[in-house]
Structure prediction request, 219 residues.
Amino acid sequence: MTAHQYNIRIEKAKESLRTSFIAEIEFSIAKEYILEYEWLGKVPGWTRYCFGHFFNGICKQHPVIGGVLMLGDTTGSNIAFNKMFPNKKVIQLQRGVNLWWTPRNSASFFISRVCKWLKENSDYDVITATCDEEAGEYGIIYQSLNWTYLGKLKHGHPKFIIDGKEIHPKTLYDKHGTSSVSKIKEIYGNTVSIQKANFKHRYIYLLRDKNRNNLSYPK
Prediction:
């Protein structure tokens, strides 16, 4: 037998999710949440859409944000998806956070509603997302939403640790015109250490054409 207050809390959580809604938000608002809560701790470039997941909270006239998603152009290794779908528009799920107080299943609810919004209000055909094992991400949410798993990325950038701080390869390229391991070692000498690339899991969701036969990540 469960406590009465526990049962009330579970029912209120269900009601809160049912009455929640998504809406586009300004990049500046999404940025605040991403910088504070997201594992990478930095915002992406070339973002096209920012969404907030709103809950009524204490006052229904002033809903509060319980989650944020940022989507944008495919960059880096994700550009390969453009080759995989040469005649379709591909968008990348770049960043996402779900605050601790939100009800169970909020993340899957949020992502599914954003997919529905994109299908109805944009001309994108495919969404791609990555999951980083280093952050404890394996794509459980995407699996529950019936996204297609394409395995681990077969290639990736090495990690550059310079004076104890991780520096992204693109940052080094912008500064030195190269992100070659040998060149970076020449420039920084003993202050740099190289770690193996952290391979990521790849998922896609087809917004329109649902034929997933023979899908595979391009080599």
